[in-house]
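Exercise: predict the fold of this chain.
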Amino acid sequence: MYTDVGVYYSPGPVLRGEVFDGSEAVRRMESWLIENHGFQPQYAVSELNEKNFWRMFDAELYEQCRKKYGAVGNFMSVYYKCKKGRKTEKEVQEAEQAHLETAEAEVDQPED
């Protein structure tokens, strides 16, 4: 399932003068999508943590493609690219380096 929800008006609670937590509303929608095997486009606001991001998207296939096309170590992971605005450049680089070291360790392991 693919969803592309746009909100173009104030939510009911805001119109009634009530408290409305937009981040919580997005988290609830993302949880519902994960439970129902859906996903949302990543140009939109996302509250997904890394674990839930990879529950929504196929991490195994993504990592296979990154290795196949030489993206590991050259391009940052799509998760960090999506969340870059919420992380410092140093945090993104450290996470990518850790990911690269893991990928290199896997390559160094003899195959069964």
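Check your answer against the key: The first helix runs from residue 12 to 15.
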